[in-house]
Specification:
Radius of gyration: 14 Å
Order of helices and strands: HHHHH
Distance between the termini: 22 Å
Helix content: 55-70%
Number of helices: 5
Structural class: mainly alpha
Largest sheet: none
Strand content: under 5%
Length: 103
């Protein structure tokens, strides 16, 4: 599968780190962050591992991990989720523009 161009999208560097970690079987915070949206990301063409290779509860695992390094994991978790939503919306918009330009 060809990797989509993520340059210029919100949180693109964090997404690329998470994808690399998932590819290498590491469940970093970035990998857990992406695993929580794996179905949507896969549908947008990102190379996500099969569901059975992902953690069962990635959102809970991410929250717990963020709590280990923060006094306020709720705030950090919600900030990360908002960042992921922003990335997904921007990627969907980019793909829609590419499709409409190709027709």
């Amino acid at each position: 599968m060809t990797m989509l161009d993520l340059q210029g999208l919100p949180a693109a560097e964090r997404v690329e780190r998470g994808l690399a970690d998932l590819r290498d079987g590491r469940f970093s915070d970035e990998a857990l962050w992406l695993a929580a949206a794996s179905v949507r990301l896969r549908s947008l063409g990102l190379p996500m591992p099969a569901a059975d290779l992902l953690p069962r509860e990635p959102e809970l695992s991410l929250y717990a991990s963020l709590g280990e390094s923060s006094d306020d994991p709720y705030y950090r978790y919600n900030a990360w989720r908002a960042e992921l939503d922003s990335f997904l919306s921007a990627l969907e918009g980019r793909l829609a523009r590419l499709r409409s330009a190709g027709t």
